[in-house]
Every structure is written in C-alpha cells, then in structure tokens.
C-alpha cells in the first residue's frame, strides 16, 4: 500500500483552467483525512478517503464556499512522490488533477518568493 502522508502541491483543471492547491494527507492504515487549501476563492476544505494499493480516492468538502463535495480518484506512483487522476462534482463537472510531494520543491518556491519579496503560502 502506498504511503501518501505529508504535504503535497498540486493542480486541478476545471473547464481547462488550472487551479493550484496544497494538501496535507494524514494516513492511518488505508484511511485518509486531511486539509486542502485551493489557490482560489474556494479556500480551505477537509478531506476523507482511502488508499488501496496504489489507488487513492477521497472527497473534499469546502468549509465556507461550496456545499458540493468533490470526489477525487487517482493512482500514486511507485516512488510515492507523484499522483494523478480525475475529480468530479456529481455528473455535471469534472476534470484532471495531479500532485507532487512538496518537500524540497516547496522550500525552493518559498526561498525564491522570499528573495523576490513575494508572499508565498507555505502551509496551514
């Protein structure tokens, strides 16, 4: 079973437009919980789901902006540093998503932003 615990940076596409997000997965056995912060007006969401083998599925529910749960399904890479799949809201809206473990990439983005005096969100 894949271990996805920790911080990830990702993108989902809705009607061809990308939205970046940060997610923190907390994994206990097959069960997932955590938080997602979208880089849009939608803001923060809570998630729950599961990991079976290298398959991941979870639903996210926004805290303040949208009553509709978003369902994500995907596959985790063998090295457990990348995942990708599809998301859907009912049958009327859907798209692709992907995420990478944040680790060094997040540190590099933070350092670049600091050197350019650009505010960078670094966590929850």
Task: Explain what you see.
The radius of gyration is 14 Å and the shape is globular. The chain has one helix and eight strands; from the N terminus they run ββββββββα. The longest helix is centred in the last third of the chain and has 13 residues, at about 105-115. The protein has one helix at about 105-115; strands at about 5-15, 15-30, 30-40, 45-50, 55-60, 70-75, 80-90, 95-100. An eight-stranded antiparallel barrel has the order 1-2-3-4-5-6-7-8. It has one domain: Quinohemoprotein amine dehydrogenase alpha subunit, domain 2 (Lipocalin, Beta Barrel). Strand 7 and strand 8 form a beta hairpin. It is mostly beta strands and about 120 residues long. Helices cover about 10% and strands about 55% of the residues.
CATH architecture: Beta Barrel
The averaged pLDDT comes out at 86
Query: Can you tell me the CATH superfamily?
Result: Quinohemoprotein amine dehydrogenase alpha subunit, domain 2
Rg, nearest Å:
14 Å
SSE succession: EEEEEEEEH
Poorly predicted runs of 5 or more residues: 105-124
Distance from N terminus to C terminus (CA atoms, Å) equals: 27 Å
Q: Would you give the CATH topology?
A: Lipocalin
Number of domains: 1
Tags for this model:
124 residues; mainly beta; Lipocalin; 10% helix; 56% strand; globular
Short description:
The chain has about 120 residues and is mostly beta strands. It is built from 1 helix and 8 strands. It has one domain: Beta Barrel (Lipocalin), CATH 2.40.128.120.
Q: What order do the helices and strands come in, and which of them pair?
A:
Layout: E1 6-14, E2 17-28, E3 31-38, E4 44-52, E5 55-62, E6 70-76, E7 82-89, E8 93-101, H1 103-115
